[in-house]
Amino acid sequence: MSKEMEIEIEKETKVDEDLYSRQIYALGEEAMKKLTQTNVLVLGLSGLGIEISKNIVLAGVKSVTIWDDQCVKISDLSSHFYFKETDVGKNRAKVSLPQLKELNEYVNIHLVDNSSFDEDFLKNYTVVVCVNQTDFEKVLGISDICHSLGIKFIQTDTRGLFGQVFCDFGKSFLITDPNGEPCLTTMITSITKANPGVVTNNMESRHGFEDGDWVEFSELAGMTELNGKRRQIKYMNPFEFSIGDTTDLSEYKFEGSGGYATQVKVPIESSHLSLRESLENPEFNITDYSNFDLGKQLFYTYLGWYEYLKSNKFQIPKPHQEEVFQEILSNAKKANDKRKEQYEEAIKGIEDEKEKNKVPKQFLEEIPEELVKSFAYMGYGELSPMTAFFGGVVGQEILKACTSKFTPLKQWLLLDFLKALPKDYDKINKEEFELQNSRYDPYIAVFGKTIQKKIQDINYFLVGAGAIGCEMLKNWAMMGLGTGENGKIHVTDMDTIEKSNLNRQFLFRNSDINELKDATACKSVKKMNPDLNIIPYSIRVGKETENVFNPDFYENLDGVCNALDNVEARLYIDSNCVFYKKSLLESGTLGPKGNTQVIVPYLTECYADSRDPPEKGIPQCTLHNFPNKIDHTIQWARDKFEGLFTTQPLDVNNYLKHDDYIQELEKKNLGVMLQTLRSVYSDLSTKMAKDFQDCVNWAVELFTDLFRNQIAQLLFSYPLNAKNKRGEPFWTGKKRPPVVIEFDPENDLHLDFVVAASNLRARIYSIDKCLDHNKIKEMSAKYMIPEFVPAKGVKIQVDENETNNDDDDDDFIEQDEIEINDLKKQLPNPKDSEVSAINLKPEKFEKDDDSNFHIDFITACSNLRASNYKIPLANRLKTKGIAGKIIPALATTTAAVTGLVCLELYKLILEKDIECYTNSFLNLSLPYFGFSEPIKCKTTKYVPTEEKTFSIWDRIDINGSIDTTVNDLKKWFTDNYKYETVMITCLNKLIYNSYGQTAEEDSAKTVIKLIEECGGKVSPDQRYIPMIFMCEDENEEDVELPTVCFKINK
Q1: Which of 226, 257, 265, 1021 is the most exposed place for a label (fewest CB within 10 A)?
Q2: Shortest CA distance to 678 belongs to which of 664, 660, 665, 691?
Q3: What pLDDT was estimated at residue 806?
Q4: pLDDT band at 807, cuts 50/70/90?
Q5: Closest CA to 486 of 552, 555, 554, 557
Q6: Cα separation of 298 and 367, whole Å?
Q7: Per-residue pLDDT tens digits for 891-929
Q8: Could you give the residue ranges of the DSSP H alpha helices within 765-809?
Q9: Is the dihedral of CA 194, 196, 197, 200 positive or negative?
Q10: Are 261 and 199 in contact, with CB atoms under 8 Å apart?
């Protein structure tokens, strides 16, 4: 190996949190550090090889070394997104090298031309990956060396709609975190002194633990011997678990919080066979619970394939050759018969059935010929959806091997996606699959020329050009989607590129930061396939852009694909797809988890029918007075940031600029009005900052108010010995008694708060910042902190269901009104020249700018609040993730999910029956692969006594014009359905009520006029107006109706 290719000696590497932040939230900091010390060797740069390499380079391993002895063929362009037609004939690895180097500046990319992979060469690598290697004996030899040296080994292959992965992480592999889920904590109310001792948790929530989990105890007032100790648990029920013998411990006492039990991740040892050993005793990951033999069936099919290649000089056969099928089938049967003979030999002499059952049956009763035929017919090449899926799965397995994070495959994963094939596949004329010497030959070999033509002529809308969007466009470019004369891809995303996007949105580079995502993505994929017809719009999809994404736009589409990261936008697109009867491909990821959903008109339910429920918010009384988790203090600090540095400056500016500001403020409740006037008056007079010392004084005063005064007031109102209304201790359970914090400039956390708060205050008043901590420390020491004097009669909300009755108390109302009137008089006149020149600069929260003090303030503020309540502190990274609501993300999961989505696209083009479509859920950390049939759309009867039904996909179209009246609509319903119209709702407005006083008058009005009179608005170019009709039949029975669409013909 040359000096340039030598693997560098391990050294401490600083992880770029700006780049890897979303990945760190999925893997953790320790795993990320391990990743940066890992050297990976990838043997084989086919489409699958480049997909794997791309994923691990983006992930940030230390180095990736690539090798390939094959030259680029035109068919390689079907899945290798960096090959161009001019590269045909060149070495695949050499062409890939410069492209991979551009992906991540922190990763060293090496190229080797070594064809002898001996111990001296392989020992330099942490992980070795063999990709689509046709010489299986050579692969076995590499596997043997890796197994003996303790090098993690992966072998993978895709052929048409078939794929397999094999993992060997050594004889002893330690899994530090099997699932990546956050450790659960439960609050304890009792522990019995018994054998076994039973722990009961707070009945307000389930403990969430599983049998065999380990927990660590803390803050126990009794049985203190358990504090800091770990015990393995036995699950009893959702509120109880046992922890073994506790008879020799002291009595449990319920005091304060009662104590906590926190789940602890205990390393698990895993053992793997080598590839050669595993051929004799394979272990399969189950993916199809209706066919437990699927893994075994595909295993023997692949063994037949590798034997075929060996006897045919490792040459890939052309598609749909009967003789190829027969040879592979014969090979598979021989391998299966051999295992059957071995089994029969092993059970000879064993008469006991139980003992016989202990001998594994590693054979099939019968080799499935149709499965083998499909494999043989399509073994010609790689498809981008398959390489995306398996490239994501293998990429994640490499990360597991590098970090010991998550559970590896054990040990074979074999899958087919034959539901995407055309109907009666083996009966289609062979000419349909004849190769054309084009980049699309592998697709033609699998789906045929007709389907490939349909793919190229498709007109599709991609909403979003982020992580999923980039991967989707790459797949589509390889598939040739939208490259035909009638084909087109529409893509829109209003966001610009940030540094953190580069870790998983691989179409972007450093030079693209601040550029529009969709426009940049379009340029990148055009390089991958110059024939793409693609249009970026760079605008948001919503009500405000319906002049662009109008009825003509939707009606000309063949379908829509979402690549979104929020529910609101998904619901909007979903509603449009339902209205215009368009299919929708939906997907999403969360760290190692991913899901896909296919939505088909008249067959399946829509996205809105089965979306996740909204997240539960934190109760306000918990946030304001009784936090018990770090999430509570972070949210509280985030709210403080918004109030102090965004809302208050905006209030000041509005007061100065709008003459009617006070009148508008008077429309709000008394409490809001009072607090707003206090802050406006303070920011324009008593606390107005003129220099940085004023900002520091303000920050110290804020510290004193938040972490001393408010806490002291709470303890004054509810002393430590206080009782609740039931005579029980007030400070118990989730109500943690707080402690007062006095400001100390020598305390680093205190100073961090003042530095961040004072600089934010300075930015608002356009005062120069100060980054000198020592100087700020000196300035803060000058401020004289006044003594705290508790206020009497202060009401504190102690329960979420309790309302603050201050407004019902005449005394409090009178006091507030007096203060409000005084503040109005004291506020400076906005017309005064000195005051009118003031223009504060509100802060807009931005989590990814480390120089703006936003996360610094929230981290310090949250941790001080946590210190008040004796809650474990959180570092800056964790605080940023929670405060910024950052979604953990991995390029591996994204790639896998988009591959599955694209396979569903083929089914849509083929107009499959519902049982052929697949919704999927992945959890690559476990790993788990769940595939299910979509839920059929529900149907509703018009009238309970009739059989006529409709679904969400049905609608009643009524043609009309701007002159159409309500009477016209009523008559249409009577003539066509014999129904009498009772009410009409449109744009969330009740525009007609037959029982109303103006019913007769309204009936004579035009629909457009009535909508506008009710506060609605119909744009001049609007063609459709959705309406909801309430009708009765001849028997005065209520009638259920689908959406009514009033079509305005112009």
Answers
A1: 1021
A2: 665
A3: 47
A4: very low
A5: 557
A6: 10
A7: 999 999 999 999 999 999 999 999 999 999 999 999 999
A8: 773-781
A9: negative
A10: yes
Q: Which residues contact 177 (CB under 8 A, 6 or more apart)?
A: 28, 265, 404, 405, 406
Pairing state of beta strands 980-986 and 989-993? antiparallel
Give the DSSP letter of residue 886.
P
Beta bridge partners of 1032: 980, 1038
**d(C-alpha 300, C-alpha 412), whole Å:** 12
Which tokens sit at 513?
């930061």
**Which three-class secondary structure string do you get for 553-592?**
HHHCCCEEEECCCCHHHHHHHHHHHHHHCCCEEEEEEEEC
User: Is the dihedral angle over the CA atoms 1028, 1029, 1030, 1033 positive or is it negative?
Assistant: negative
Tokens encoding 11: 């050294």
Output phi, psi for 163, to 5 deg: -160, 155
Q: Which of left, alpha, beta for 482 (phi over 0: left; psi -120 to 50: alpha)?
A: left
What is the enclosing helix (H) or strand (E) of 496?
none
Q: What is the DSSP string of 70-104?
A: PBP-GGGGGT-TT--GGGTTSBHHHHHHHHHHTT-
Cα–Cα dist 691/465, whole Å = 45
Task: Find tokens 């804020």 and name the residue.
Answer: 702
Q: In degrees, to the nearest 5, what angle opens at C-alpha 971 toward C-alphas 966 and 974?
A: 130
C-alpha distance from residue 842 to each of 197, 641, 652 (Å): 56, 11, 10
Nearest to 721 by CA among 706, 708, 731: 731
Local confidence band at 405 (pLDDT 50, 70, 90 cut-offs): very high
What contacts 210, CB < 8 A, 6 or more positions away?
235
Both tokens of residue 413? 């994963």
Share the mean pLDDT of the chain: 94
Report if pTM > 0.90.
Answer: yes
Residue 13's pLDDT is what? 63
The pLDDT value recorded for residue 131 is 98
* Strand-pair category, 989-993 with 559-562: unpaired
Residue 129 phi/psi, 5-degree rounding, is -125, 120
State how far the Cα of 127 lies from the Cα of 401, in Å rounded to an integer.
7
Task: Report pLDDT digits (tens) over 152-201.
Answer: 999 999 999 999 999 999 999 999 999 999 999 999 999 999 999 999 99
- Alpha carbon distance 531, 198 (integer Å): 68
Active site residues: 621
Q: How far apart are CA 600 and CA 950, in angstroms?
A: 15
Tokens of 926: 């476990």
Radius of gyration of the chain (CA): 34
Three-state DSSP state, 1030? strand
Query: Where does 895-979 show beta strands of DSSP type E?
Result: 919-923, 928-932, 939-941, 949-951, 955-960
Least confident of 202-211, 335-344, 509-518: 202-211
Range among 423-427, 589-593, 940-944 rated most confident: 589-593
Q: Which of 488, 458, 475, 585 is nearest to 525 (CA)?
A: 475
Query: Where is pLDDT greater, at 598 or 729?
Result: 598
Q: How many Cβ atoms sit within 10 Å of the Cβ of residue 479?
A: 25
Per-residue pLDDT at 1005: 95
In percent, how much of the chain has pLDDT > 90?
86
> Of all helices (H) and strands (E), which one includes residue 1034?
none
Confirm if 441 and 74 have CB atoms less than 8 A apart.
Answer: yes
pLDDT of res. 809: 60
Mean pLDDT over 635-648 rounds to 98
d(CA 294, CA 364): 10
Q: Which amino acid is at 703?
A: F
Buried b (16+ CB within 10 A) or exposed e, 816-836: beeebeebeeebbeeeeeebe
Amino acid at the residue 758: S
> What whole-number distance in Å separates Cα of residue 111 and Cα of residue 409?
28
Tokens of 930: 């769940």
